[in-house]
């Protein structure tokens, strides 16, 4: 069953190609940017303490991106959809 019309899908894919596949990457990785994916890998093999020692500024951005993403995904969106569905 084709839910999305092909013209809409083709226009989305054309726009995605113009921005180097950033949109499809973002959706495929559940809201993570390329920076967040790279930092997650570094955090896995370096550990949080060594990642902090390597670059506190990058660690801070990494932490903020995850914090903002998780707040939006797990707090704001459920409240938004609950309010829409109850009114």
Report on the architecture of this protein:
This protein has 87 residues and is mainly α. The protein has two domains: 1-30, no CATH class; 37-87. It is built from five helices and no strands. The radius of gyration is 17 Å and the shape is flat. The model has no long low-confidence stretch (mean pLDDT 82).
What is the H-and-E element order?
Answer: HHHHH
What level of helicity do the residues show?
over 70%
| Mean pLDDT across all amino acids | 82
Q: Uncertain runs with pLDDT below 50, 5 residues or more?
A: none
Structural class computed from helices and strand pairing:
mainly alpha
Number of helices: 5
Radius of gyration: 17 Å
Shape: flat
What is the strand tally? 0
Q: How is the biggest beta sheet arranged?
A: none
Calculate the terminal CA-CA distance, rounded to whole Å. 30 Å
| Number of structurally distinct domains | 2
What portion of residues belong to β-strands? under 5%
Give a quick precis of the structure:
With 87 residues, this protein is an all-alpha fold.
List the helices and strands and how they pair.
Elements: H1 6-18, H2 22-28, H3 34-46, H4 48-54, H5 56-86
Helix pairs in contact: 3-4, 3-5, 4-5
Q: What descriptors fit this protein?
A:
single chain, mainly alpha, 2 domains, 82% helix, 0% strand
């Amino acid at each position: 069953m084709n839910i999305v019309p092909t013209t809409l899908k083709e226009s989305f894919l054309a726009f995605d190609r113009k921005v180097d596949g950033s949109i499809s990457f973002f959706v495929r990785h559940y809201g993570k940017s390329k920076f967040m994916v790279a930092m997650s890998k570094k955090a896995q093999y370096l550990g949080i303490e060594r990642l902090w020692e390597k670059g506190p500024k990058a660690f801070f951005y990494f932490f903020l991106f995850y914090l903002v993403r998780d707040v939006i995904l797990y707090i704001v969106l459920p409240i938004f959809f609950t309010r829409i569905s109850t009114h």
